[in-house]
Write a structure and sequence with these properties.
heterodimer, A: about 325 residues, mainly alpha, two-stranded antiparallel ribbon, 2 strands, about 0% strand, globular, B: about 325 residues, two-stranded antiparallel sheet, 4 strands
Chain lengths: ~325, ~325
């Protein structure tokens, strides 16, 4: 193959590697491992997408679960409504997959709209307002869902088709990580990093700070919606109680622990915390206490998190795909 | 007409509570430029401290106005100490760091209080933290277990709601068709008393002058010989005491208390502080009253399920139209 063809192939490389590997994993994993891996993947998507706002842009949002809920409910509504529908001319499996993909896409879209509605008023102000406002909005969105009979009220929606498997989740993780990585090294991403480093200076340099903050927020909300859609089609139940601020807080802890601004840090922290929780299952009532202690101690001892803003792949040898971006990553 | 009057009375009594909590937010923001996320949880701790004092004094069986004063003093001492400890342990070490670090710590402290209070009681040997230790191969020291066994109350209280006992008999009056109880009157009088007192402290005492100086410019205030750290500690104590008072005043009319009771009042009081202009003491009072009245009117004339939404609708409007709030100054960020 010529070098040019390889270059064209490059963007598709993550998928070419991921899909067969995920199929293989799907085939061999026993049910409990598969549930665990899906939960892990969903947490990775959540942490990496929240990192776009909290890490890259330096705006502290703690209402991620609300966008997850919007995506989850949208997708759940669509798949339950189209449960018995088969697209003409397609086999059952493919027809279901098309419906599921469309439902996930719709969930991402509506979550993005919700992100826009929350982001526009609150991102006009400095970061510390955002934290309280997103917490408030998160609760409000949950209360709206709880009081809406169309969405099943407090009992939620049950009887969802079991569409999510390791392949779907893995593809979601790949999409999220590729998105975050591309964003980080793009012109647009540099604008976000500039806002994090110094908002006033960024504005003086001609960065439309409010506009970019809102865009980051919308992207992050969309991927939270994807995570929500994936999660509910594994546990086959969608209730408001799954999307309280406890969930938001869990994601925040993952991002802060991994290092705000580091994609690989978020992945490691999300995987590590999911694993730790699985291990400490008996201590469920201590979970939030452990999280909050972790957060406070982390801030006092190592405020940059485990990775800081560094990335794992910046330190890999070249033959393993490591490449240093020109200069240090900010 | 009577209905309007009733809503006005309810709105004002709710508004004074929001104002008391909002004062804590606004004073801390004034001196530290930090939103004290844990403020709503200090309010919660105040309610529980009052509850414990009331239980210890057996208010349930033998109520009395003297005991009410004792309950207030107990709650104020506990919340004041808690405010001092939070500032000292969690915020002061981070003061030189970026603001985001302090914000994250504040969120952590807030959740620590909320969920720490939901843990099973230490007296409950089976499921409490002490009960778990032997399972990990750690021995519980004898003095500790005997101390815990001697605890007169359940601490931490756990997630089940508790009910605040009434320290004196409730008397209901009907004036012009408006229902008012003696609790409403006492609560309003106490709240106004504390606000007037605060106003005197801030504008008439040496400490208040120092506080305003630190709020204006902490570095220069330090150069002028003002003990900045002590002033900041004092501000935290003052704000936390007000939150404790607010919690007890609420408990008079809504006696149900639980570990996450601080979340919504905390958020709403924050909205009130932003509405009045964060950092402004009179702004917090006006903002609290406006929010209480607005909430009561909307809940009374439309549907009570909008009650919690109104605060956030108000917040969005303020942020879009007048982000500095009613009494706030427009601040230009300087480099």
């Amino acid at each position: 193959m010529t070098g040019r063809a390889l270059l064209l192939l490059r963007p598709a490389l993550p998928l070419i590697v991921a899909v067969p590997a995920l199929w293989a994993l799907q085939a061999v994993a026993p049910p409990y491992v598969s549930i665990f891996l899906i939960a892990l993947g969903v947490n990775v998507i959540l942490a990496v997408s929240l990192n776009v706002v909290n890490g890259f842009t330096g705006q502290f949002s703690i209402g991620h679960a609300a966008f997850m809920a919007v995506g989850a409910y949208t997708a759940a509504k669509i798949t339950t409504a189209l449960r018995d529908v088969q697209i003409a001319g397609l086999p059952v499996g493919i027809s279901d997959a098309v419906v599921f993909a469309a439902a996930l896409g719709a969930g991402m879209l509506l979550a993005a709209v919700a992100g826009l509605l929350v982001g526009v008023p609150s991102l006009r102000l400095r970061g510390d307002y955002l934290a309280i406002v997103t917490l408030g909005f998160g609760e409000i969105i949950r209360v709206i869902i709880e009081n809406s009979s169309f969405l099943g009220g407090a009992t939620g929606i049950s009887g969802l088709p079991p569409d999510t498997n390791i392949v779907w989740t893995g593809l979601g993780v790949v999409a999220t990580v590729v998105m975050a990585r591309r964003l980080q090294t793009s012109t647009q991403g540099r604008a976000l990093l500039a806002i994090r480093e110094d908002e006033v200076a960024a504005e003086a340099m001609g960065v439309d700070t409010v506009g970019w903050k809102v865009r980051a927020f919308v992207i992050s909300a969309a991927f939270a919606g994807l995570a929500g859609g994936l999660l509910v089609h594994k546990i086959l139940l969608c209730t408001p109680r799954m999307f309280t601020f406890v969930k938001s807080f869990e994601v925040v802890v993952m991002v802060v622990l991994g290092g705000m601004g580091s994609i690989s840090g978020s992945i490691f922290a999300a995987a590590g915390l999911t694993l730790a929780l699985e291990w400490l299952r008996g201590l469920d009532q201590y979970r939030m206490v452990i999280y909050s202690l972790l957060l406070v101690v982390l801030m006092l001892v190592r405020p940059t998190g485990l990775f800081g803003t560094r990335e794992l792949w910046d330190h890999l040898p070249r033959w393993l795909g490591g490449r240093r971006v020109d200069g240090r990553m900010p | 007409m009577t209905e309007l009057l009733q809503h006005l009375v309810n709105g004002i009594s709710l508004g004074t509570i929001y104002a008391l909590i909002a004062l804590g937010y606004t004073m801390v923001y004034g001196v530290l430029k930090l939103i004290n996320f844990a403020h709503g949880d200090v309010y919660m701790v105040g309610a529980f401290a009052g509850y414990y004092v009331a239980t210890a004094l057996d208010v349930q069986q033998r109520p009395g106005p003297g005991k009410a004063v004792a309950v207030f003093l107990g709650a104020m001492v506990v919340t004041g100490a808690l405010g001092f400890a939070i500032e000292r342990l969690a915020y002061r070490p981070l003061r030189a760091r970026p603001r985001l670090a302090a914000l994250i710590t504040a969120i952590g402290v807030s959740f620590l209080l909320e969920y720490g209070f939901q843990l099973p009681s230490l007296r409950n040997q089976g499921s409490s933290l002490l009960g778990l230790l032997p399972g990990w191969g750690l021995a519980v020291p004898g003095w500790l277990s005997s101390l815990v066994a001697a605890l007169p109350v359940d601490f931490p209280p756990g997630p089940t709601p508790r009910f605040f006992p009434e320290p004196f008999e409730r008397v209901d009056w009907t004036v012009l068709g408006v229902h008012v109880s003696n609790y409403d009157v006492v609560s309003f009088a106490v709240a106004v008393g504390f606000m007037v007192g605060l106003q005197l402290v801030v504008y008439r005492t040496k400490f208040g002058t120092a506080m305003r100086a630190v709020s204006f410019d902490a570095r220069i205030a330090g150069l002028m010989g003002i003990p900045v750290n002590r002033v900041i500690s004092g501000t935290f104590v003052l704000g936390s005491v007000l939150a404790g008072v607010a919690a007890l005043l609420v408990a008079g009319s809504r006696p149900r208390i639980d570990p996450i009771m601080g979340l919504m009042p905390g958020l709403k009081a924050f909205v009130a502080a932003v509405l009045g202009g964060i950092g402004s003491v009179p702004g917090a009072m006006v903002g609290g009253l406006a929010l209480g009245l607005g909430e009561e009117m909307v809940a009374g004339y439309t549907s009570s399920s909008f009650r919690d939404g109104i605060a956030f609708a108000m917040l969005i409007l303020v942020l879009l139209l007048r982000p500095e709030g009613l009494f706030g100054r427009v601040t230009v960020e300087k480099v």
